[in-house]
Design a protein that fits this description.
The protein is mainly alpha-helical. Helix content is 70%, strand content 6%. The radius of gyration is 22 Å and the shape is globular.
Length: 407
Amino acid sequence: MNDAQSPSQDSRIAFCLEIGKALHSFGTPAHRFEEAMHLLVASLGLEGDFLAHPTAFFADLRSAARREVFVVRTESGETNLEKLVSIQALVKEVISGNQPIEEAAARVREVVARAPSFGRGLVAVSFGLSSAMAARFFGGGWREMVLAALLGLMISVLGFWTSKQHHLAQVLVLLAATLAGFGGVVAAHFISHTAAFTITLASIVILLPGLRLTIALREVATGNLVTGSSRLVDAAMTLLMLAFGVALGRQVAMQFAKTFQESPSIQLAAWTEWAALLVVPLTYMVLFQARKRDFGWILLASIVAFISSRLGSAWLGPELGAGLGAMTLGIVANLFGRYTRLPNQIMELPGLLLLVPGSIGFRGLAFLTMGETEVGLQTAFRMVFLAVALVMGLSLANALVRPRKGL
């Protein structure tokens, strides 16, 4: 068995490993990764089997002359939709014979090493702006939106700083949650008619593992039990760290604000929620490092997910309504992929962010830390049921409109 440090002498196999490493590092779900790799090796005249794990993948590649087995270790990176599109275009050129494999492999490495299109400053602003919009979706007023944006911006800067400090990077989630819990209580103590919990929840909304939970359950549903189970544990651990950090931050803040009490926020007009819906896709475009030309598709995905889930919730209830939203989104994303020949993730990921159950799971754990066990368990069960509804909705969408195969 070879590892990533022992490349194959067959250029086709080496190219497949480069593509696999790129896809895996972008966080491609196991079922999509394995399907794409099978199609790629078949187009190159090879045979192969793949097994994806969260931090590595196994590749059993066979040509007429030899058989080689590789284990390729990867580090899960941030989602980068622009790079994913570039990788797909390179693979198409190789399959069509317009690009030599050796040159394509070098270009793959260049794409992976390329600096993100949106710099850290813009990412930090988008993080804060997405927190402000989340505060509006959670029922907050303009005070909560401004304070959540400031806390979100601080958390984003904290993330950039800890990324350079290896010993601190592992506790980023805990530090961010502690800051959010502390900041929410302090802000609500000094500013009247401000909901502390809304500020806290909105400021860490991007860190909530709802999307990871949904992807994990989807992998389990598609038979990728090892990868799905690992992602489930990772999502659960992230939720626990967030809940613990928020509880710690709130307790520390209450030592200084002993008279603090939760107060309701001042509600905004209904039209402001629709205005927030138009702003959110801009933040998703930056956070997912998508191409500027794909903003219209991201906006469409957000609108489809939001409207269909709201209509479904009014008709079937919130959990099944989210499932209907996921099904509608999945159908639209599959049609988009089939007719544009671009990755479905351009529409699917941003739309799912408006549906994922991370905030519900966090509320459940928060209730548990406050001693409200029954309410906490009920809320946690709602999180799991909502995640299952999303997975079933996406599965039904794939059954009604088959997604385009390949990358």
